[in-house]
Design a protein that fits this description.
Elements (H helix, E strand, L loop, with lengths): L1 H5 L12 H8 L9 E3 L6 E3 L1 H12 L5
Antiparallel strand pairs: 1-2
Length: about 60
């Protein structure tokens, strides 16, 4: 992404996706994975602890550990 930005790509948003998202879907959403919890009724997102950690890594431009 950094290379793309430096080469003029208009990066406005970034979505984190992983293989665990497929596992969540395959389990009928009975088991929740990922860095954000979505309340299906209200569609309200809640950032999980892992999401806060990821945000800290991104803001510091590298792993914290």
């Amino acid at each position: 992404m950094q290379s793309a930005i430096e080469n003029g790509a208009p990066l406005a948003d970034y979505v984190v996706w992983s293989r665990t998202d497929i596992l969540e879907w395959a389990k009928g959403y009975a088991k929740r994975f990922g860095i954000v919890y979505i309340d299906f009724e209200t569609q309200k997102p809640t950032i999980k602890a892992s999401g806060r950690w990821f945000g800290d890594v991104v803001c510091s431009k590298g792993p914290t550990e």
